[in-house]
Design a protein that fits this description.
The structure holds 2 protein chains of 2 kinds. By secondary structure, chain A is an all-beta fold. Chain A contains no helices and 11 strands. In chain A, the strands form 2 sheets. In chain A, strands 2, 4, 5, 6, 9, 10 and 11 form a 7-stranded mixed β-sheet that branches. In chain A, strands 1-3-8-7 form a 4-stranded antiparallel β-sheet, with no helix packed on it. In chain B, strands 2, 4, 5, 9, 10 and 11 form a 6-stranded mixed β-sheet that branches. Chain B has a 5-stranded antiparallel β-sheet with strand order 1-3-8-7-6, with no helix packed on it. In chain B, a hairpin with a 4-residue loop joins strand 7 and strand 8. The chains are: A mainly beta, B mainly beta. Chains A and B meet through strand 5 and strand 10 of A and strand 5 and strand 10 of B.
């Protein structure tokens, strides 16, 4: 069974540009989560989808970030326009059930904004 | 404010010994606590979950304790091996039951052969 995949693995963009990150969860997992780790800090929650619906987006930093999960399969996270402080590693995770159960993480996308 | 503390200094131990990592938290009573392993360049890998009404949980060479009075979890790896070297993260539900984990910064474990 394939795990959670993320694309690209690394992205370098200039301040003001747009970047779109993609996450493919494990097949059949209704729950999809986005997290971010800024250098030197802990992994922080961004948002949670249940199928195609946003269940909780309380961690989204501001309106420059837009997440979608059309059709309830893969998800995209767009940053527009990117700022220097958006640099970090963006992780996606998926789970079959909700309620504190095991989340399977992808390898992350390292975003560098210069 | 809510806080999760893990030792920022790396833990160095000899192969075969038991590694013990600590996770302390403040100002909340989480419904559960999780431990993850993270290797460089990879995402966290779930290891164990322990709920607030459980004192201890085991899985193979791993053991987790959860003391809600001390607000502390201990993570033990017995008979440690160099392959156990990684960063270990604890994560708690600190969001009022929404089951979204809040992560600590992690502790690096280095097992020397």
């Amino acid at each position: 069974e394939a795990g959670v995949t993320q694309f690209p693995s690394h992205s370098v963009i200039e301040k003001g540009q747009t970047v779109t990150l993609r996450c493919d969860p494990i097949s059949g997992h209704d729950n999809l989560y986005w997290y971010r780790r800024v250098m030197g800090k802990e992994i922080k929650f961004l948002l949670h989808f249940v199928k195609e619906s946003k269940q909780d987006e309380s961690g989204m930093p501001n309106n420059r970030f837009l997440a979608e999960r059309t059709g309830g399969t893969y998800s995209t996270l767009k940053v527009q326009p990117a700022e220097l402080e958006d640099s970090g590693v963006y992780f996606c995770a998926s789970s079959q059930d909700y309620g504190g159960n095991e989340q399977y993480f992808g390898p992350g996308t390292r975003l560098t904004v210069t | 404010s809510q806080k999760i503390e893990q030792n920022s200094e790396a833990l160095n131990i000899q192969e075969g010994k038991t590694a013990t990592l600590t996770c302390n938290y403040t100002n909340y009573s989480p419904a559960y606590l999780q431990w993850y392993r993270q290797d460089p360049g990879r995402g966290p890998v779930f290891l164990l979950l322990i709920r607030e009404n459980e004192k201890e949980k085991r899985k193979e060479r791993l053991k987790v304790t959860f003391d809600t009075t001390l607000k502390q979890s201990l993570f033990h790896i017995t008979a440690s091996q160099p392959a156990d070297s990684a960063t270990y993260l604890c994560a708690l539900d600190m969001s009022g039951g929404s089951y979204i984990p809040t992560f600590g910064r992690g502790t690096s474990l280095i097992v020397h052969p």
